[in-house]
Every structure is written in C-alpha cells, then in structure tokens.
Amino acid sequence: MTDNKKQTIVALDAEGVILPEIWIAVAEATGIAELTRTTRDEPDYDILMKSRLAILDKHGITIDKIQAVIAELTPLDGAKAFLDELRSITQLVILSDTFEQFAQPLVKQLDWPTIFCHQLHIEGKRIADYQLRIADPKRKAVKAFQSLNYTVIAAGDSYNDTTMLEAADTGFLFRAPANVQQEFEHLPHYESYSDLLSAIKENI
To answer: Known catalytic residues?
Structure first.
C-alpha cells in the first residue's frame, strides 16, 4: 500500500535572509545612493530592475565592477549554520530574484544549496538587460512543489516574497522592514535564525 504522506520542503529567499543585499553593497562601494532601493521598497520588480540598469549605464558600472564588490561579500552571520541544520532535517531550495552571475560566489560559501534565480544579458562588460525565468517565479515554484505532493514552508523579507509566502502551506517573514510587516501583518515575523528554525521545525 502506498504511503501518501507529504514530504516537506523549505523555500527561502536569498538576499536579506541568508545573503547580504547585493545592490546595497554596490551602492556603498560606488557611492551611488539610488542603488540602495530594493524589493523592500519597490513592489514592482520590473520597475526596479529597469531603474537599476539605467543607473548602471549612467555611471558606467559594468559587470566586472559589480562582481568585484560581490567577491568581498560573505553570507549573513549565522546563515551557514542555519542552513546546515535545516538541511539535516528537511529539503531546501533558495528562490531568489538575484542573478546567476551575482549569486554563484556567495552560494559557494554556503556549500552549494540549490538556488533558482534569473539571468543577466551581458554585452561586452555592460549589463544590457535581464531575463526572468518566468513571471512570479517564487509563487509558481511553491505551487509546483505542492503539485509534487510536498508541504512547503517558506520564508522571506520583501514584497517580492509575499506571493510565495501566501501560497506556501506555512509562510514566515524574516527580518522584514516595518512597511512589509505592516502590510502583511497576518504573516508571523521572526528576527533570529534560532526562532525561525524553531518555527520551521514545528511545521515539519
């Protein structure tokens, strides 16, 4: 007789949850304050990215300059230990709106968890455009896992995570800014990895 009990998979956002905000790091390194705007501030990802690309062109910021900044970054304090323990008890996937060209050196430091993210179009060294895998990819990934008979637990910090969190069987905000917490006050919010890990374990 087949056991139809669902397995659990945890879906996490990357930047702000386990990785630093790459665009903020670039803003700090270049002195370009406009690049501090992130998905914590702008709900429309397309508007945000078009603005970023225009700013990069205006200031002559190329892919190699951004990758040089990323090379100096490390995962957030405690992130690796959190992921290591999480992966010892359940399956894990990172659902991110960052880009493969940005994420790889940081993911390497975390022992290569699975990450779904997007692609940049590079012309020479100029970032000419970006390509989303699909629209609303985080929510659709959650729905796909559920169609495979997984129970999905998700955590994120920004506007672009909220459709994923609401589609998941259980969704948590993690270190979200006040504006996101206020607009999605029905979602439990945690500030520490230990509290988030405990909440995840309670739902496995």
So the answer is: 13, 15
